[in-house]
Design a protein that fits this description.
flat; mainly alpha
Length: 130
Amino acid sequence: MISNQILWLFLLAIPIACVAWTVTHEEVFREPREYCAKRCRNGKTLAERKFFYLFTCEYCFSHYVTVAFLFLTNYKLLLNDWRGYIIAGFSLVWIANIYMCLFGLIRQDIKKEKTEIEVMEKNTDKLNKV
């Protein structure tokens, strides 16, 4: 039973991380994210600023995505009552954010390598012209 719950924990965190990352980082949601960032900076009330901030921060947004996934899957961790939802929720957020952190590092490394390759290609082209 517990091994099944742990498996679910690590697997369910994948789509949570995917949704949270996509909304808060990817180009497909750039315009709504920019709108939210503007409302976050220029909102008249604290509640308005904090509400719109949720859509710009992958950590914050992952909490709400997790709640949606808990509702959809009825997943509980360790305990079969409401406490199992609380434990599952925070555990899923934590694992999903580890996934997003790793994904961010991998993307950063890939971008660095692409930039280094472009610089080497430009230097090679300059040497070939001489």
